[in-house]
């Protein structure tokens, strides 16, 4: 038999079964139990200072909440669906344990500000975990970049060989994208580190409470400035979902390359047996499943963001029950991001790069054509003219099936008298990376500077 609702004073009879099932959230928001108990303890201390609780009542509440915490963490707590959510479950059990003092705890607060503070505390804690793993992965990329600083490979545009680049430059490109993700998480965590507790349902509370006390004791930098915005706001959830979805896109792009690079056709890398799987029918297969799974989960992260934005877009101020739909996307995103980052770190722990194969591809698709065009520019030829000349050379090589990288000076001078003996050095892809003099380019000095900068950002 269902217990009378804590809010049921003006109601006759009980909710229908479908209302009960739609209203219930304790099966997923129960994971907020630590934050809820933490917030309740600080709220109780404020009520004591306000004279609403006696010292003995306050001590009884804290002791009772400690008992509830132990019961939950030991698996002995009975989560009841008829109490709807984690907040009511804890309050009901507290009242069972200590009596009327438990019924005083909800004075000067609403579930609206209670759930907001629980969720903000949760996001702050989980964001710190995400940042920690993200830093670890970025540093791993920087370490590999330093180890592979002399490895040169073909860089691609449109999935066609474009120009020679250092493998380090390629890895650092991903590291820089991830560093922006790190900054986003840090920025959002700091921006939303404001305490919502104490604003009540929407208008404030009929007590002279001390919200600054609540903020200080819960580790917030300050208090939210407007009571209505506080309970209507879910930007702090949308922001972590956005940061996570963009991080997911970046991880997916890395994983796409890992899948491509591990193919027989590319053969750029070898992933360890610990992060690959076999086929149920083909004995020879070694599949990059971990990379594929992380690549797939990026869509899930984006979907969670879209889900919340769609819920929020048409809601009038202030609180609406639709907002209960914020928790499942949040929890799923946090779990997914943490798992994906662990997977990325694991894949890059023992990754092996095939330097010989990477070197071979440098001689594909005329990778130093731009170097030759720039060589002509240095000889006084306008760039558009030099571009046309080198394009004609490429056309000649394709038609005559000639090796672009083995053309001699006599052949090159058929296209321009500006060519001299030193052009042959520029034709060789081995030295191309060192001809890139612009800041942020793929030269060794630039790559080493980038590694140092990345480490400074992360550490």
Kindly describe this structure.
With about 450 residues, the protein is mainly alpha-helical. It has three domains: about 15-105, Fumarase C, Chain B, domain 1 (Orthogonal Bundle), CATH 1.10.275; about 110-360, Fumarase C, Chain A, domain 2, CATH 1.20.200.10; about 370-425, Ribonucleotide Reductase Protein R1, domain 1, CATH 1.10.40.30. About 60% of the residues lie in helices and about 5% in strands. It has 19 helices and six strands. It has a two-stranded antiparallel ribbon. Helix 9 links the parallel strand 3 (about 195) and strand 4 (about 220-225). The model has no long low-confidence stretch (mean pLDDT about 95).
What keywords describe this structure?
Fumarase C, Chain A, domain 2; 19 helices; Ribonucleotide Reductase Protein R1, domain 1; 3 domains; 459 residues; two-stranded parallel ribbon; mainly alpha; Fumarase C, Chain B, domain 1; single chain; 6 strands; two-stranded antiparallel sheet
């Amino acid at each position: 038999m269902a217990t009378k609702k804590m809010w049921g004073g003006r109601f006759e009879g009980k909710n229908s079964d479908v209302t009960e099932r739609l209203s219930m959230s304790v099966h997923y928001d129960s994971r907020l139990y630590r934050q809820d108990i933490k917030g309740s303890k600080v709220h109780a201390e404020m009520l004591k200072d306000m004279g609403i609780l006696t010292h003995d009542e306050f001590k009884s509440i804290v002791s009772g909440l400690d008992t509830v915490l132990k019961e939950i963490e030991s698996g002995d707590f009975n989560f009841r669906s008829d109490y709807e959510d984690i907040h009511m479950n804890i309050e009901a059990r507290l009242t069972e344990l200590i009596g009327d003092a438990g019924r005083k705890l909800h004075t000067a607060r609403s579930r609206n500000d209670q759930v907001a503070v629980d969720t903000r505390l949760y996001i702050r804690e989980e964001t710190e975990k995400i940042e920690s793993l993200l830093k670890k992965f970025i540093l791993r990329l920087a370490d590999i970049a330093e180890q592979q600083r002399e490895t040169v490979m073909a860089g691609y545009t449109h999935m066609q060989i474009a120009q020679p680049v250092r493998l380090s430059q390629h890895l650092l490109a991903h590291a820089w994208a991830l560093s922006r993700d790190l900054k986003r998480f840090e920025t959002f965590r700091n921006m939303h580190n404001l305490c919502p507790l104490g604003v009540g349902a929407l208008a404030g509370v009929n007590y002279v409470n001390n919200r600054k006390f609540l903020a200080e004791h819960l580790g917030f930098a300050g208090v939210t400035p407007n009571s209505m915005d506080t309970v209507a706001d879910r930007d702090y959830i949308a922001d972590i979902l956005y940061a996570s979805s963009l991080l997911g896109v970046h991880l997916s792009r890395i994983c796409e390359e890992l899948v491509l690079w591990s193919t027989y056709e590319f053969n750029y890398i070898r992933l360890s047996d610990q992060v690959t799987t076999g086929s149920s029918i083909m004995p020879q297969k070694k599949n990059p499943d971990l990379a594929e799974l992380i690549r797939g989960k990026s869509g899930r992260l984006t979907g969670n963001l879209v889900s919340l934005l769609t819920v929020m877009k048409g809601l009038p101020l202030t609180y609406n029950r639709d907002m209960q739909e914020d928790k499942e996307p949040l929890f799923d995103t946090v779990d997914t991001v943490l798992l994906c980052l662990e997977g990325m770190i694991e894949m890059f722990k023992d990754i092996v790069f095939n330097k010989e194969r990477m070197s071979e591809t440098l001689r594909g698709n005329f990778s130093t054509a731009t170097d030759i065009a720039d060589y002509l520019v240095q000889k006084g030829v306008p760039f558009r003219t030099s571009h046309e000349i080198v394009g004609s050379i490429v056309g000649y090589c394709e038609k005559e099936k000639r090796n672009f990288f083995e053309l001699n000076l006599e052949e090159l001078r058929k296209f321009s008298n500006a060519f001299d003996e030193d052009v042959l050095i520029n034709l060789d892809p081995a030295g191309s990376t060192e001809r890139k003099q612009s800041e942020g380019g793929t030269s060794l000095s630039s790559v080493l500077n980038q590694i140092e900068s990345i480490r400074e950002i992360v550490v």
